[in-house]
């Protein structure tokens, strides 16, 4: 099974490395405008294969994506000094306007997974461009809040003194400042979070929850402040998503995908628990949120819809 990764920067190359370490697929192709970078990353990762799983890792161009079951989009441009968020969005939209049709031209049956930030907006655009190229709904989705959910589970696991694999809870909405931690639905080892902390004699009062919330919400800022970028967590999240696609695992993951309506906000892309398999997003599951979480999700959806509305307005400075 063949996987393509467009964009061989820190996120794309780390995703490829994570695929090798997990043994996902049989062939990985790195595509990048900077061909020398893609070739160097492919060589470096390929040299790790004898210590992991038998995969072929190489660089190539869009034609080499032929036969891919999944293609991960990590391509994008960096923010220039003095550039606004909207200007950056417009430039990344221009990149995707070329990249998405090029991918589908050579890999028409591939599931496309978007990782480029802001991932909610970029996924919405990628799905739009893919639909224009004839791709069916559900075949394009983004990494969304899969990483945020992992951060939430990690911190709760540490607080509760248990392996994070036994902590179940979701972060939904925007992959960003307005994301929603679904505290009311968290379970630990089959017990509600409130019941578990009471049993263990732990103090998870509002100040403790606020601390965890802040650490989840600000994690990227903290990591970027310390080392300049985040890539290990998202690289592993992407490998997990690709694994679900390649093996049609029917996994429930908090990925982002276009939705016609989210609590009254029309035509918006947010992260929600979704069934992910060989054909991409198969189903979206509504959550029984409490009133506070519903209001937060509606606000988060409006943030993303606002960014899309800004982007859809004519560019006053097209040059």
Provide a concise account of the structure shown.
Helix content is 45%, strand content 21%. The protein has 319 residues and is of the alpha/beta class. Helix 1 (10-22) links the parallel strand 1 and strand 2.
Task: Write a structural description.
The protein has 319 residues and is an alpha/beta fold. It folds into 2 domains: 2-142, Rossmann fold (3-Layer(aba) Sandwich); 146-311, Lactate dehydrogenase/glycoside hydrolase, family 4, C-terminal (L-2-Hydroxyisocaproate Dehydrogenase, Chain A, domain 2), CATH 3.90.110.10. It has 10 helices and 14 strands. The protein has helices spanning 10-22, 35-46, 85-106, 119-132, 146-160, 193-200, 206-217, 219-227, 232-246, 291-312; strands spanning 2-6, 27-31, 56-60, 68-73, 111-114, 140-142, 167-168, 171-172, 180-181, 187-188, 191-192, 251-262, 265-277, 280-284. The strands form 4 sheets. Strands 3-2-1-4-5-6 form a 6-stranded parallel sheet. A 3-stranded antiparallel sheet has the order 7-10-11. Strand 8 and strand 9 (180-181) form a beta hairpin. The mean pLDDT is 96.
Instruction: Report on the biggest sheet.
Output: 6 strands, parallel
Q: How many structural domains are formed by the residues?
A: 2
Strand content: 15-25%
End-to-end separation in angstroms reads 42 Å
Determine the oligomeric state from the structure: single chain
Kindly state the percentage of residues in helix.
Answer: 40-55%
| CATH structural architecture of the largest domain | Alpha-Beta Complex
Given the C-alpha coordinates, what overall shape results? globular
What is the strand tally?
14
The average pLDDT score comes to 96
């Amino acid at each position: 099974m063949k996987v393509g990764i467009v964009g061989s920067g820190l996120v794309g190359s780390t995703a490829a490395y994570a695929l090798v370490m997990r043994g996902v697929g049989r062939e990985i192709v790195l595509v990048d405008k900077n061909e020398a970078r893609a070739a160097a990353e492919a060589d470096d990762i390929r040299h790790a294969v004898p210590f992991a799983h038998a995969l072929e890792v190489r660089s190539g161009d869009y034609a080499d994506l032929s036969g891919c079951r999944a293609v991960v989009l990590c391509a994008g441009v960096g923010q220039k000094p003095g550039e606004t968020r909207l200007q950056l969005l417009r430039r990344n939209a221009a990149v995707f306007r070329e990249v998405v049709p090029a991918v589908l031209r050579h890999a028409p049956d591939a599931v496309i997974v978007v990782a480029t930030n802001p991932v909610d907006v970029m996924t919405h655009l990628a799905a739009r461009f893919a639909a224009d190229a004839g791709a069916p709904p559900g075949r394009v989705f983004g990494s969304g809040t899969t990483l945020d959910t992992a951060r939430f589970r990690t911190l709760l696991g540490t607080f509760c003194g248990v392996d994070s694999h036994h902590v179940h809870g979701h972060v939904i909405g925007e992959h960003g400042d307005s994301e929603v931690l679904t505290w009311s639905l968290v379970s630990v080892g089959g017990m509600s979070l409130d019941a578990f902390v009471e049993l263990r004699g732990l103090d998870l009062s509002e100040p403790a929850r606020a601390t965890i919330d802040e650490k989840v919400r600000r994690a990227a800022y903290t990591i970027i402040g310390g080392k300049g970028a985040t890539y290990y967590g998202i690289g592993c999240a992407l490998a997990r998503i690709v694994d679900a696609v390649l093996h049609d695992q029917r996994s429930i993951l908090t990925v982002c995908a276009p939705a016609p309506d989210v609590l009254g906000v029309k035509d918006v892309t947010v992260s929600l628990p979704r069934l992910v398999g060989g054909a991409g997003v198969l189903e979206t599951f509504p959550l029984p949120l409490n009133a506070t979480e519903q209001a937060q999700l509606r606000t988060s959806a409006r943030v993303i819809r606002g960014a899309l509305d800004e982007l859809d307005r004519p560019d006053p400075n097209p040059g």
